[in-house]
Design a protein that fits this description.
The chain contains eight helices and seven strands; from the N terminus they run αβαββαβαβαβαααβ. The chain is an alpha/beta fold. The protein has one domain: NAD(P)-binding Rossmann-like Domain (Rossmann fold, 3-Layer(aba) Sandwich). It has a seven-stranded parallel sheet with strand order 3-2-1-4-5-6-7, sandwiched between helices. α5 links the parallel β5 and β6. α3 runs parallel beside α4 and α4 runs parallel beside α5. The longest helix is centred in the middle third of the chain and has 29 residues. The structure holds nicotinamide-adenine-dinucleotide.
Length: 254
């Protein structure tokens, strides 16, 4: 027990306000749902027009290009007006492309860096500023198995995710004095409709699963525990950490 709090109280998320950038996507829509089930208030910011289906609870959707700081500043205004504060930021905007390295064009580099690096960095700047003022907050970024080791056919994405990992640790150091914690998830393979079409053919699937001790892909719900934990007071001494959820993929050698 810490400061007379029970474990239930330390894990409680009731009433906390979260911003989920990229919240209409495959993983972050499931994570938004889990936050709502935990009685959190959730603001979903995404570049797409429609919010994810079947969300219930205290939730609102804002169409927003998070790679543009001005758009995020408007988003922050709306969130603060509605919720009065922001306790948790989940930074899940992304895009990728399987282009061979020598063929990658400048527009493609821009597109991937904007969705992965700019959106994450601006998200931290804009919502992190509010958290620093509050002297409290939890930011959860998305690293990747390719943040530290090469993953074929994802060159710009991997460089972007290395940047996200570095930014996470840097901000953890910077904002620890203000009780703003900054951590990253490192998911393994959770195939989306896009990745099944463009990235994971049969041969690649066999290679991935052959390198995954659990011999299967992950399901979005399998990220929930880590996110809810990092969002809660139960993780009050956790900052600058990378939580790996990959069925053993990155622990595997031969
Ligand atoms: N799915 C996986 O296997 C996997 C593995 C490792 C890491 N990740 C990371 O998890 C996070 C979520 O990925 P996902 O698989 O759910 O992808 P996804 O493509 O389903 O979702 C990404 C969302 O980001 C939104 N987005 C893109 N650019 C944006 C912008 N500029 N502003 C606002 N929203 C924007 C998209 O519209 C989409 O809804 C990403 O950071 C991704 O890199 C995923």
């Amino acid at each position: 027990m810490i400061k007379n709090q029970t474990m239930d109280q330390r894990f409680s998320l009731r009433g906390k306000a979260a911003v989920v950038v990229g919240g209409a996507g495959y993983l972050c829509s499931a994570l938004s749902r889990a936050m709502l089930e935990s009685e959190m208030k959730v603001a979903i910011l995404d570049v797409v027009k429609e919010p994810p289906a079947d969300l219930s609870g205290e939730v609102f959707f804002l169409q927003c290009d998070a790679a543009q700081k001005e758009a995020l500043l408007k988003g922050r205004e709306a969130v603060l007006q509605k919720f009065g504060r922001v306790d948790v930021l989940l930074n899940g905007a992304t895009c990728n492309a399987p282009t061979p390295f020598l063929e990658i064009s400048e527009p493609e580099i821009d597109r991937i860096l904007r969705a992965n690096v700019y959106a994450t960095l601006y998200g931290c700047q804009v919502f992190g500023e509010a958290m620093v003022k509050q002297r409290k907050g939890s930011i959860i970024n998305f690293a990747s198995a390719s943040s530290t080791t090469p993953l074929s056919r994802a060159f710009v994405y991997s460089a972007a995710k290395a940047g996200v990992l570095n930014l996470t640790k840097n901000l953890a150091r910077e904002w620890a004095p203000y009780q703003v914690r900054v951590n990253a998830l490192q998911p393994g393979f959770f195939p989306t409709e896009w990745s099944r079409k463009h990235f994971i053919d049969e041969e690649r699937q066999a290679k991935i699963l052959g390198h995954t001790p659990m011999r299967r892909f992950g399901k979005p719900e399998e990220l929930t525990g880590a996110v809810l934990w990092l969002a809660s007071e139960a993780a009050s001494f956790v900052t600058g950490s990378v939580v790996t959820i990959d069925g053993g993929f990155t622990a595997m050698t031969i």
